[in-house]
Structure to design on (111 residues):
């Protein structure tokens, strides 16, 4: 089974250059398995700093206004995401404030 991929925008206006390293450290400390990468612009410019989460066969997510304060909720999201067969959740309340930062849910290929 593939791992989820977290993609963090590094060129968002007011992007926190430390966020990538903080996310990597949080994943490692929590023992959460995921790939982490940075890219230039994901067109979430109205809600910087953006974070995408995707995994083969699952719904993908785009979050905006992500900060280091969201890392605990991101870890919760990743645990729930990995436990979900399709990447969808019946109850998003465990995601705390992160659930209000969702910009988009992109369905997986129906194939």
């Amino acid at each position: 089974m593939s791992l989820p991929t977290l993609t963090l925008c590094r060129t968002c206006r007011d992007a926190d250059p430390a966020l990538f390293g903080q996310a990597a450290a949080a994943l490692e400390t929590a023992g959460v398995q995921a790939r982490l990468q940075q890219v230039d612009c994901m067109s979430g410019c109205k809600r910087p700093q953006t974070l995408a989460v995707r995994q083969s066969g699952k719904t993908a997510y785009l979050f905006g206004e992500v900060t280091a304060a969201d890392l605990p909720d991101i870890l919760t999201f990743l645990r729930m995401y990995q436990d979900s067969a399709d990447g969808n959740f019946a109850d998003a309340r465990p995601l705390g404030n992160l659930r209000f930062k969702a910009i988009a849910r992109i369905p997986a290929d129906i194939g």
Notes: The first helix runs from residue 19 to 30. The chain has a mean pLDDT of 94. The longest strand covers residues 5-9. Helices lie at 19-30, 71-83.
